[in-house]
């Protein structure tokens, strides 16, 4: 582990930060002035280089801002936190313009300072090589097990020409998966052509797919190549295939089986070599049963099926996605990338995002434009995110918990206040759940099942961890679940912070 370097001519500041960081298990190295830092950097081996640099502004010799400029020249990816007892606008602006990770005003709260250093340290864990790899593969990001399984599937298909059906909710990134399949296939040098079959009127879709001859219909004043011809030698992505008109499904099936088609108004068959990737958010089996989708076409498309998980199924990916989208939005607008305060990151990491990754991307763009400060706090988040997260974070706690475990049924009709928290004392837990569900349903809240399941699992795990005094394995045994299961649940539910005091 690379150390945290602390540079300050004030011994008391160095002492406080050293002890606090060491309690967190972080290695430190202290220096008294900027010249010492530059000399140490010149002589340090790779393993001895800092992971984070915390520097005062006003020091003898090279000051903090000068040090920032010089260090950034040598190590542009090193997170640098600037400290100062002289908080003013010019210093803050100069620090951020120089590439500082954050600006810390003295006197500071030690816990806040440690949290800031930890965030910087986590950022530094990503090597420049990894960052470049991430930039090169920005089509898809994710460390969640479901995403890793998807990545493995794309890897297995990298040498295949087989037809693929991509399923998933709207906003999960089905076109990104299709592009990744094309990019890592033998057809990568050929064209990638995408068409949303639900966005084009039925009367125009046939011509859009297969092209038309001059004079084929009113307004057809010239021959036009369709998407199949445009995708010859490459990949054709058919989005929202479930909405394709039934008669066009027949033509599509013929192309897939014969590899040829006729333009609208044409008499000569056109041969093409096209890999088809289809996508839908609908249940095609149900569409087939209802007579809205051809069964033979369904089986032709469903050779390999890839399901993209909803964002609520991979909430541990939210932080890395947020950082990526904030950086992308900042680059697009030509401004400095915003950063999220730990509390704001926790709120967003627990939000269910009904619009999935697309909603998260739009949110990051909104924050880039609308958030007043460089660091986004909870109060800067859109009201709908704050309100929904507040509702989802409510737990079954207090005196009711004791009575639930005792099995007492003293309150028949628990009351629910305006913010949906349960105010009844001594109510049976089933009545409490029923009342909470009724309140959420009455207010037309989305994903009620997921909300209450999260609360229930959070309450169980918190109680078990508290009972076992922080021993996670013992807690899992008490609950009758596996060690890996409780670890995954703690991560998925975002319980690390709340359980820290129970260990």
Q: What would CATH call the class of the largest domain?
A: Alpha Beta
- Overall strand count: 14
Spans where pLDDT lies below 50 across 5 or more residues: 126-138, 391-427
Question: Roughly what percent helix?
Answer: 40-55%
- The spatial strand order of the largest sheet comes to 2-1-3-4-5
Assigned CATH architecture of the largest domain? 3-Layer(aba) Sandwich
Outline the biggest β-sheet: 5 strands, parallel
CATH topology of the largest domain: Rossmann fold
Global structural class: alpha/beta
- Tally of individual domains: 4
Number of helices: 23
Determine the CATH superfamily of the largest domain: P-loop containing nucleotide triphosphate hydrolases
Q: What sort of overall outline do the alpha carbons produce when their principal axes are compared? A: globular
Beta-strand fraction estimate? 5-15%
Overall pLDDT confidence: 80
Give the radius of gyration. Answer: 29 Å
Q: What separation lies between the terminal Cα atoms? A: 24 Å
